[in-house]
Design goal:
The chain is mainly α. Helix content is 60%, strand content 10%. A 3-stranded parallel β-sheet has the order 1-4-5. Strand 4, helix 7 and strand 5 (120-121) form a beta-alpha-beta unit.
């Protein structure tokens, strides 16, 4: 049985920047993204001329990264006005399809997602899972963590240390 995974834009963008988007396909076979996440990661990314857009768009064309429409529960936006539309669509879609895993990096959005009983993880989780699945080495994880920080990924020194200990 396949795992139902819904992703927000940040894990897609950061894994693409690292040249590791394919880890999602290897780990989960198929990833669903709502339309707004596609708009954030691809359409707006093209406007900004970000190179990772091409990798994400290619994954959609290959068919393992799938866009799926969903209707945002407006009560969600009232309950959590700090969510952007993409995050709200991710949570709505995950609830709709009863996702096994939600991928998002924003701490506040993750807390809200978890408050709905959703198993919510981020980019670091993907790297650690890839290591445990022997898709990447321990040294690669360390290098990728450093690259993440250089690309603007917010990672506290506590989390960084905890990840290194977990390796």
């Amino acid at each position: 049985m396949s795992v139902r995974v819904v992703s927000n834009s940040s894990p897609l963008i950061y894994l693409s920047k690292l040249g590791k988007l394919e880890l999602l396909q290897k780990l989960f076979r198929e990833i669903l993204i709502p339309k707004e996440v596609f708009n954030e990661a691809v359409s707006r990314g093209k406007e900004g001329k970000f190179s990772e857009v091409l990798v994400i768009e290619d994954a959609v064309q290959q068919g393992w990264l799938k866009t799926k429409g969903t209707k945002v529960d407006r009560r969600l936006l009232e309950f959590a006005p700090e969510l952007d539309l993409g995050e709200a669509e991710v949570i709505s879609l995950a609830r709709e399809i009863k996702a096994d895993l939600v991928l998002m990096d924003d701490a506040s959005a993750r807390s809200i997602s978890e408050s709905f009983g959703l198993n919510t993880k981020g980019t670091i989780y993907v790297l650690l899972k890839a290591r445990k699945s022997e898709l990447i080495t321990e040294e690669e994880v360390k290098t990728l963590l450093d690259k993440l920080v250089l690309t603007g990924f917010r990672l506290s020194s506590d989390v960084y240390s905890r990840v290194l200990r977990e390796l």
